[in-house]
């Protein structure tokens, strides 16, 4: 296990190239900072876990989105890969995050996971792409997050303070910025309930 | 003949419990609905029952993935569940119950008890409710399908029913042990693509059994075809037997007795 | 904490003793302008008279109101909770005619119910849902709600919370009913409209797919079959989609009434209270302006509600509580306020709000009081049962909190940590809303000249072309894309399914449930049928005729599946524009009067209803977009014997086909008029007396099992109905126009095939039962118009005896099935057949 404890940064933030899309702060990050006072978290750690479909398996949500693109007048995208995001905040060790990612959050047959610190597995290695993260706003109920809390306790691990869920879309192919914006607002997110983070990688 | 005690295990989000209980009752069993908490707290004991059913639904909303949270909750009890299966008592997991059995490593049955298969998102990426045709593997040891015709009809209703395996070896093992119990077919009894296979299942698999035949995992819903009036075409048929789904439950009761 | 909530805190009262700090301007001395500006800045949606009434009340109390008190009044008096438009006095003017309604709702829809006075109506217009008898032992509860504004802003979450809310209405009627059916009816803009959208308006495709997904995910997770519904497309719904969600439940007859006693404990169960959903009730009374706040839209937590459902029904059967209600619009303030009114002769409640369980700790007390967080309910519990009941809920994973107790002081008293928040007279709260007379004006739209010859099909080939276009029209085409996503068979009781026919894909008129899993009585073959009637296109010409038609359509659909229409009960849902516009009110009055007349005419009472106003949108340029007045009529009736139910697919060849009902020159608002793109004369008008006779005769014949197949003629008339029956059964049909019973003005095939005259049915009859059938239908206009044939075609013989149409069933079906997949998934773009 090569996971390491990492309270503040996350793999997503590591990915940030500082482009215009990345300037959108994810609300929950500021929440956690507030808790620790001045940007440093002492007790509770915050982790992000991403779950993606293995290569060779059908990425059904991605394929369904591909069908929708022509209706939006978008034709240059080659592939969309959809993954689930979990942000887990609590007195949990990085080892335990590895365990729950493997045993709970991912399906051993169809999915792969990455945590803040694990070595990227094949499902996460793709060429240049747009990465879109869509999270529920902190004020919006997150039923899946609640189920994950329960399931983590069932595993015998410390109870998390809070789990929030989101979705990451990786869009491969040719996609000008204006089309990316149209896709984001027209299909992937709704500013009424979501915060988003778009990066070009 | 005594009505065999049948445990219908329910939890938050189970929603086919009442009709599954009704099916067992019609088949001559004495069904008891129990919340999974009662099992976990020791208030009820698995081995007090002759038959176990895990009914369909959306346990814990199917959050994370279908059946995952319930399988995780039951993880410390799967050992007991496996010995329940080994004791030869009938166990049936329908739809969400099948997903739980697969994600808990009970089916397909392996020596290590690890999860070697899964039920993934339908290829259509949509929940689908429709009646399907199924071909039963008459060579199988399954106690549930004894005396059934080779081709039957049942409804499916799921969003995550695409059966996949860890490796081709697992599929070979399933074939060799005659564990593939039902496959989706078309009107001619042949394999066909969507919508006959509603989810894109590997090898058109709709239901599997353990080699001994007492543990059944099935995506379609036999409890929704108990009388002729459940069939979508009953108004077209001048004659029509009872619902074929009832036979599966009757077989379980008959076997116990 | 956000800046916004800090601002809210600033106006929070420390206590009523120091009220001066509470308000920008003290209430007692504030002038109309100051009141109005506070009203606006706090988003209360109160009008001038209401503000004055509140001021007068607190003057009489000799003190300033607290924030929580004003919020309570605003929620209780909101359009959503009080239906103040529909219950207000209305002066109606139509040319020279004037009529004064003292209370529009009571004088129309409810008056008919009172007049009919059916003994099987157990609870009407007073609880969370209407309740009628099922079989003497069980009762049916039915409620249909709208959730339009939230769905416009966030389709998925809006639909989910809409479904969740209406299910809680059924759980919260009497002592709670078990939901066994969900319904969904949508009015959307066609998804392929490419014209630019005003700011803040979602693309219609997104609205539709989001709403369908929301209904699917919530209904499926709760294990309630969504098996009845309708979809209507019209560009007029571009900015204001309508989303009707219904739920039908079954309860023991002994559970129909609530019986609260002073001293009973107020118990809140289910989800925790959060900042989410503050000001939902007042939001639903406000126009959409593109800047909807986030706090009013939520996504649902279906499994929480499922837990509540499981726990509640188990507790009901053990008799552990005396009343329950949904925590919907207005949150605790209206749930507790409503139940409090029934506690003893004077009513009353005492609430200690600090005991409520919260999602976040930074809520101001008044926010806790009015928050509309989802999946919560409030119970009245005898103190002795509290421990058992709480244990029961906890075992299902449901949290409970004791909020206080019901009293008989006549006052609603709320405190938080000992500090008073609300101390108000319940009578003022529930009866103090000032009534305001509204003006309603109706002007007939310019009379359209009776359609001319040039409007008719010019050549024989054109009839086929029109039929194909109609079948592919969004308002007619297959709904399979939607229905398959719903688990319409969960609970194992859906014996007449929404998709029917040889390949299980034909359009059923209604659905039938056989609730054995709930009643446990497998000896009984009694069932429940549900259907709908909706046609806003007719309403554009005459809302009165539309109302008659909607009732006729809903009841006709029930008759087609074999229900007992003499026991049918109706639900109304009115969605209209801005009621401050007298013409909008005029149209509403006509529709309401139509409901009244139709209910009496068919002897079918309304048992519940809901209205939604301000369905309009002001865009960035100040232009107003208003929906056409839209009436949905939902109908429910028992089925005496489900073994006699019928579907709409032709069964076999060689059977006579009968057309029931008069065909007249009624193409106004019809699908044919849309094809011609011009008004085409008179809107279909239901002749109440003959329509009722026809319906009741048909119902008797059905119960004797004299028909094989029945289908109601709706949009597209005879041609569309015959095509649907033929391709669903894969059995051909031969029709002869000459044999159609028709009024004198009907002299051409176009009218015979496409007129939308109401109360008409196409029936397939077993030749062996033909005589008995004709005897049963004596006195009803009925005529043998053809037969089913082996050749898979729809063949029509014209008035001159030559074939005017012969179209293969496969191509008709393909046209009918292709539309929604094409519109929603962009699959194989093909011409819709319409030459444009």
Structure, explained:
The complex is a heterotrimer of chains A (201), B (257) and C (836). Chain A is built from six helices and six strands, in the order ααβαβαββαβαβ. With 201 residues, chain A is α+β, with helices and mostly antiparallel strands. Chain A starts with 10 loop residues before the first helix and ends with a strand. Chain B has a nine-stranded mixed sheet, sandwiched between helices. A two-stranded antiparallel ribbon of chain B has the order 5-8. The model of chain B has no long low-confidence stretch (mean pLDDT 94). By secondary structure, chain C is of the alpha+beta class. Chain C contains 28 helices and 33 strands. The radius of gyration of chain C is 27 Å and the shape is globular. Classes of the chains: A alpha+beta (201), B alpha/beta (257), C alpha+beta (836). At the B-C interface, α1 and β6 of B face α10, α12, β18 and α19 of C.
- The H-and-E topology of chain A, N to C, reads as HHEHEHEEHEHE
**Total helix count of chain A?**
6
What's the mean pLDDT score of chain C?
90
CATH class of chain A: Alpha Beta
Q: Which structural class is indicated by helix and strand composition of chain A?
A: alpha+beta
Structural class of chain C: alpha+beta
Low-confidence stretches of chain A: 1-42
Largest interface: B-C, 39 and 46 residues
Number of strands of chain A: 6
Helix content of chain A: 25-40%
CATH architecture verdict of chain A: 2-Layer Sandwich
The outline of chain A comes out as: globular
Beta-strand portion of chain A reads 25-35%
Helix amount of chain C:
25-40%
Spans of chain C of at least 5 consecutive residues whose pLDDT stays below 50 are 1-20, 284-294, 828-836
Biggest sheet statistics of chain A: 6 strands, antiparallel
């Amino acid at each position: 296990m090569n996971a390491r404890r990492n309270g503040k940064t996350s793999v997503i933030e590591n990915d940030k190239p500082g482009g215009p899309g990345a300037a959108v702060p994810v609300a929950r990050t500021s929440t956690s900072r507030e808790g620790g006072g001045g940007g440093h978290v002492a007790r509770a750690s915050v982790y992000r876990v991403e779950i993606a479909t293995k290569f060779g398996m059908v990425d059904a949500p991605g394929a369904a989105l591909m069908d929708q693109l022509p209706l939006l007048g978008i034709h240059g995208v080659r592939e969309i890969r959809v993954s689930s995001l979990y942000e887990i905040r609590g007195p949990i060790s990085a080892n335990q995050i590895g365990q729950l990612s493997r045993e709970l959050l991912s399906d051993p047959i169809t999915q792969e996971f990455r945590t803040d610190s694990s070595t990227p597995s094949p499902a996460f290695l793709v060429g240049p792409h747009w990465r879109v993260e869509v999270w529920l706003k902190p004020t919006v109920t997150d039923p899946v997050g609640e189920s994950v809390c329960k399931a983590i306790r069932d595993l015998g691990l410390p109870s998390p303070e809070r789990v929030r869920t989101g979705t990451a879309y990786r869009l491969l192919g040719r996609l000008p910025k204006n089309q990316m914006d149209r896709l984001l607002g027209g299909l992937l997110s709704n500013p009424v309930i979501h915060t988003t983070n778009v990066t070009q990688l | 003949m005594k009505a065999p005690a049948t445990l219908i295990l329910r939890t938050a989000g189970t929603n086919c419990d009442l009709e599954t209980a009704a099916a067992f009752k019609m088949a001559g069993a004495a069904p008891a609905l129990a919340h999974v908490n009662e099992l976990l707290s020791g208030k009820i004991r698995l081995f007090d029952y002759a038959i176990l059913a895990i009914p369909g639904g959306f346990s814990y909303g199917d959050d994370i993935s279908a059946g995952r949270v319930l399988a995780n909750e039951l993880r410390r009890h799967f050992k007991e569940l496996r010995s329940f299966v080994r004791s030869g008592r009938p166990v049936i997991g329908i739809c969400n119950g099948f997903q739980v059995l697969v994600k808990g490593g009970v089916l397909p049955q392996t020596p290590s008890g690890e999860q070697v298969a899964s039920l993934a998102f339908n290829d259509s990426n949509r929940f689908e409710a429709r009646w399907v045709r199924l071909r039963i593997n008459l060579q199988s040891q399954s106690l549930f399908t004894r005396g059934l015709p080779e081709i039957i009809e049942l409804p499916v209703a799921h969003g995550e029913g695409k059966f996949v395996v860890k490796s081709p070896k697992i599929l070979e093992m399933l074939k060799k042990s005659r564990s593939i119990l039902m496959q989706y077919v078309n009107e001619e009894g042949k394999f066909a693509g969507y919508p006959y296979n509603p989810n894109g299942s590997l090898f058109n698999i709709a239901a599997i059994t353990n080699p001994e035949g007492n543990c059944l995992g099935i995506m379609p819903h036999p409890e929704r075809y108990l009388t002729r009036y459940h069939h979508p075409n009953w108004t077209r048929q001048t004659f029509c037997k009872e619902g074929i789904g009832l036979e599966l439950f009757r077989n379980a009761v008959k076997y116990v007795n | 904490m956000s800046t916004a909530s800090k601002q809210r805190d600033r106006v929070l009262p420390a206590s009523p003793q120091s009220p001066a700090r509470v308000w920008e301007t003290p209430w007692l001395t504030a002038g109309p302008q100051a009141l109005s500006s506070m009203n606006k800045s706090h988003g209360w949606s109160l009008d001038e008279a209401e503000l004055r009434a509140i001021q007068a009340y607190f003057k009489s109390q000799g003190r300033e109101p607290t924030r929580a008190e004003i919020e309570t009044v605003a929620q209780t008096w909101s359009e959503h909770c009080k239906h103040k438009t529909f219950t207000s006095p209305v002066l109606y003017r139509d040319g020279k005619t004037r009529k004064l309604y003292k209370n529009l709702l009571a004088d129309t829809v409810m008056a008919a119910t009172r007049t009919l006075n059916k003994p099987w109506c157990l609870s009407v217009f007073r609880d969370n849902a209407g309740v009628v008898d099922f079989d003497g032992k069980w009762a049916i509860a039915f409620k249909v709600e709208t959730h339009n504004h939230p769905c416009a802003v966030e389709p998925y979450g809006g639909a989910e919370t809409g479904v969740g809310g209406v299910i809680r209405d059924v759980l919260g009627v009497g002592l709670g009913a078990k939901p066994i059916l969900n319904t969904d009816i949508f009015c959307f803009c066609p998804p392929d409209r490419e014209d630019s959208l005003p700011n803040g308006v979602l693309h219609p495709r997104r609205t539709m797919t989001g709403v369908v997904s929301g209904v699917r995910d919530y209904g499926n997770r709760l294990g309630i079959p969504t098996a009845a519904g309708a979809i209507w497309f019209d560009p007029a719904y571009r900015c204001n989609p309508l989303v009707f969600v219904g739920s039908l439940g079954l309860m023991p007859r002994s559970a129909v009434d609530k019986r609260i006693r002073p001293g009973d404990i107020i118990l809140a169960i289910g989800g925790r209270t959060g900042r989410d959903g503050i000001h939902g009730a007042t939001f639903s009374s406000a126009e959409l302006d593109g800047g909807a706040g986030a706090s009013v839209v939520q996504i649902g937590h279906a499994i929480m509600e499922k837990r509540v459902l499981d726990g509640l029904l188990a507790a009901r059967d053990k008799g552990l509580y005396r009343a329950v209600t949904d925590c919907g619009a207005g949150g605790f303030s209206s749930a507790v306020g409503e139940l409090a009114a029934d506690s003893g002769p004077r009513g009353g409640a005492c609430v200690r709000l600090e005991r409520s369980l919260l999602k976040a700790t930074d809520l101001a007390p008044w926010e806790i009081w009015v928050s509309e967080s989802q999946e919560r309910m409030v119970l009245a519990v005898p103190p002795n049962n509290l421990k058992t009941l709480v244990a029961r809920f906890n075992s299902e994973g449901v949290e409970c909190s004791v909020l206080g107790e019901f009293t008989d002081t006549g006052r609603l008293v709320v405190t938080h940590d000992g500090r008073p928040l609300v101390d108000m007279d319940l009578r003022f709260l529930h009866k103090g809303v000032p009534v305001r007379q509204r003006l309603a004006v109706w002007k007939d739209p310019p009379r359209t000249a009776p359609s001319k010859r040039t409007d008719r099909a010019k050549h024989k080939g054109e009839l086929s072309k029109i039929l194909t276009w109609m079948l592919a029209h969004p308002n007619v085409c297959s709904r399979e894309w939607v229905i398959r996503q719903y688990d319409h068979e969960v609970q194992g009781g859906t014996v007449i399914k929404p998709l029917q026919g040889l390949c299980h894909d034909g359009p059923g008129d209604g659905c039938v449930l056989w609730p054995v899993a709930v009643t446990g009585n497998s000896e009984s073959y009694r069932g429940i049928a549900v259907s709908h009637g909706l046609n806003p296109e007719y309403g554009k010409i005459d809302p009165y005729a539309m109302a008659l038609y909607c009732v006729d359509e809903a009841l006709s659909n029930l008759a087609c599946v074999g229900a007992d229409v003499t026991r049918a009960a109706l639900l109304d849902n009115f969605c209209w524009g801005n009621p401050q516009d007298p013409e909008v009110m005029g149209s509403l009055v006509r529709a309401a009067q139509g409901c009244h007349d139709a209910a009496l005419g068919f002897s079918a009472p309304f048992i519940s209803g809901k209205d939604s106003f301000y369905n309009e949108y002001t865009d960035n340029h100040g232009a107003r977009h208003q929906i056409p007045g839209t009436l949905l009529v939902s109908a429910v009736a028992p089925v005496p014997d489900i073994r006699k139910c019928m579907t709409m697919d032709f069964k076999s060849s060689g059977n006579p086909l009968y057309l029931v009902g008069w065909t007249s020159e009624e193409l106004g608002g019809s699908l044919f008029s849309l094809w011609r793109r011009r008004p085409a004369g008179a809107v279909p008008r239901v002749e109440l007396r003959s329509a009722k006779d026809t319906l009741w005769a048909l119902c008797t014949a059905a119960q004797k099992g004299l028909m094989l197949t029945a289908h109601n003629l709706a949009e597209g008339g005879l041609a569309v109905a015959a095509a649907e029956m033929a391709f669903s059964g894969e059995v051909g049909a031969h029709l002869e126009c000459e044999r159609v019973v028709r009024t004198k003005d009907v002299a051409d095939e176009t009218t015979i095939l496409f007129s939308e005259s109401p109360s008409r049915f196409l029936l397939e009859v077993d030749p062996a039962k033909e005589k008995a059938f004709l005897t049963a239908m004596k006195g009803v206009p009925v005529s043998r118009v053809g037969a089913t044939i082996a050749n898979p075609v729809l063949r029509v013989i014209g008035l001159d005896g030559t074939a005017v149409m012969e179209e293969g069933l496969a191509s008709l079906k393909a046209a009918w099935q292709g539309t929604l997949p094409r519109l929603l998934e962009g699959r194989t773009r093909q011409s819709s057949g319409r030459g444009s």
